[in-house]
Every structure is written in structure tokens, then in C-alpha cells.
From TrEMBL:
SUPFAM superfamilies: NagB/RpiA/CoA transferase-like (SSF100950). InterPro entries: 3-oxoacid_CoA-transf_A, CoA_trans_fam_I, CoA_transf_BS, NagB/RpiA_transferase-like. Pfam families: CoA_trans. Coiled coil: none annotated. Belongs to the 3-oxoacid CoA-transferase subunit A family. Keywords: Transferase. This is 3-oxoacid CoA-transferase, A subunit. GO terms for molecular function: succinyl-CoA:3-oxo-acid CoA-transferase activity. It comes from Cellulophaga lytica (strain ATCC 23178 / DSM 7489 / JCM 8516 / NBRC 14961 / NCIMB 1423 / VKM B-1433 / Cy l20). Its EC number is 2.8.3.5. It is an enzyme of class 2 (transferase).
Length: 233
């Protein structure tokens, strides 16, 4: 059995360089690959394009890359929690491609499955469809969207084994699952790394064939993006 394990995050990110495109898993701050993002900050790679549902917050997640002006372009769905993102976008410092959330997920899944493009009704008649092919099916108009393209996909899972098989926990599955195998190299960081064959095949969400490198993550903060509590009576 092929072992996909690497010693640490530095080994996992070998080959990362300026001007690359990265897929980054997570939804809000849930299930983000914290170790990989921190290493990207340390490597100080520049002019990168990030495909991610959101842009983190000002001082955490992808917000750390934005603070250091490492991101040239964001392909995202929801970016409303990051003031620095807003400032850079409005000032023209950051190129932004806003994409409907379902379309973004499908663009990743299409790449994962080897499909070059797909038709979707989302965005037809709006700025999203400008410059794109449209076609009618059964009386309804659709927009042709191309599959996402990336050099690396960075994902985070709850458990994984040395063969790269992954299990996600609850909502932390989010965009992580569809990004596995959707880039040239998929790097998975896990909370618990187990020997190959340790996982129940019936519980595996992503088979190891979609993962090229896997490592044991550490020091996860698992921040809550917006804590909402009931007032004391």
C-alpha cells in the first residue's frame, strides 16, 4: 500500500511558490487547514490566487495572507466577515471573482471528477454570466461554468490514515471533501493520523487516491467566527 505521509507541514508544502493557485477548504472558520495557511504565511509566497468559500477573518485563516498582501486574486462565495478583504477589494488592490456558493462547490467537484465544465441555472441574467456561454434546456436558461483549476488543494480532516483516506467530522466536511483531488496536489492535514488500514472502509468520506500528501496537524485553535449566546435571565 502506498504511504502518503510526510513528516510535517514544511514537507507537505514542498513545491509551493509564487503565482500559484490554491484551493483552501473550510466554511467560515470551520474546518480550515490552519497549519497549511500558517506555513503559507511563513513561506511568504506572493501573487497567489485562492479558491475558497470565504476569506477568513482579519486576524485568522486566509485573513493572515491578506494582511501580508500575499493574495492577488480571491475566487469566493461569501466574504462579509473580513474588513481587510473589503478594503483591498474596494481599493482595487485585490481581484475578486464572486461565485454562487453551489457553483463554487460544483466547480471543485467537477475538477475532482475530471469534468471540464457543466451547465447551471445559477447566475443566469446577472453579472455572473457575463462573457460565458449560455444554453436553453427544457425551456430554462443555463450558464456554462468551467471546472476549477489549481496547483494545490489544502484540506483539513478529523481522521486520516497513512494511505490518505480521510474522515471529516460534522460540518467541518464542507468544501474540504470536494476539493480533494481537484488540484494537481492535494495536501491533507488531520487531527488524528492512523496506520494504513485502521479506518472502517464504510466510514471513509474521501479515498486516499484523491490525496497526495497527509500529515499530523497540531495546535488547532478551532475559533468560533460569531459566538451568539442568550442573555442571562
Amino acid at each position: 500500500m502506498i504511504r502518503k505521509t510526510v513528516a510535517n507541514v514544511k514537507e507537505a508544502l514542498k513545491g509551493v511558490k509564487d503565482n500559484m493557485t490554491f484551493m483552501v477548504g473550510g466554511f467560515g472558520l470551520c474546518g480550515i487547514p490552519e497549519n497549511a495557511i500558517e506555513e503559507l504565511v511563513n513561506l511568504n509566497v506572493k501573487n497567489i490566487t485562492c479558491i475558497s468559500n470565504n476569506a477568513g477573518v482579519d486576524d485568522f485563516g486566509l485573513g493572515l495572507l491578506l494582511q501580508k498582501r500575499q493574495v492577488k486574486k480571491m475566487v469566493s462565495s461569501y466574504v462579509g466577515e473580513n474588513d481587510e478583504f473589503e478594503r483591498q477589494m474596494l481599493s482595487g488592490e485585490l481581484e475578486v471573482e464572486l461565485t454562487p456558493q453551489g457553483t463554487l462547490a460544483e466547480k471543485c467537484r467537477a475538477a475532482q471528477s475530471g469534468f471540464p465544465a457543466f451547465y447551471t441555472p445559477a447566475g443566469y441574467g446577472t453579472e455572473v454570466a457575463e462573457g460565458k456561454e449560455t444554453r436553453e434546456f427544457n425551456g430554462k436558461m443555463y450558464v456554462l461554468e468551467e471546472a476549477a483549476k489549481a496547483d494545490f488543494a489544502f484540506v483539513k480532516a478529523w481522521k486520516g490514515d497513512e494511505a490518505g483516506n480521510l474522515i471529516f467530522k460534522g460540518t467541518a466536511r464542507n468544501f474540504n471533501a470536494v476539493m480533494c483531488g481537484a488540484a494537481k496536489i492535494t495536501v491533507a492535514e488531520v487531527e488524528e493520523l492512523l496506520p494504513a488500514g485502521s479506518l472502517d472502509p464504510n466510514e471513509i468520506h474521501i479515498p486516499g487516491i484523491f490525496v497526495q500528501r497527509i500529515f499530523q496537524g497540531k495546535d488547532y485553535q478551532k475559533r468560533i467566527e460569531q459566538r451568539t449566546v442568550r442573555a442571562k435571565e
